[in-house]
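Task card 7
Instruction: Convert sequence to structure tokens.
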Amino acid sequence: MSTTPGPADSTPPPPVGIDALLERVRAGYERIEAREAYEAARAGDALLVDIRYAALRERDGLIPGAHVVERNELEWRLDPQGSHRLPEATSHALRVIVICNEGYASSLAAQSLHQLGLHRASDLVGGFQAWREAGLPVE
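Output:
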């Protein structure tokens, strides 16, 4: 009988709470403020991607020029190698700024894009609500 621990004997890592997970994820890239995101998009240096669900977009409006991509489609639409990608998603060097309602889900989404190799992916601090509070354009 072997005494060497096998996979069944390994102890899983301790659970991580969402606050700790967000802190860890956000430490891996630089987040962006609303005014800077606006200027980058205006200059053609960034692609704004709104992942808010339809009810929030209907209630609060849209950011002009932002691409609406449902969260469950994000990786498929932004993977430059994917067959379902947005026409703008042509390079892993693309600067993508993910926008959710308040800046939480977008952090996890940006981290997922980093895992796909989109190393310039970021998210908007405070999300759409921060954009609106900064007085930036909303349709």
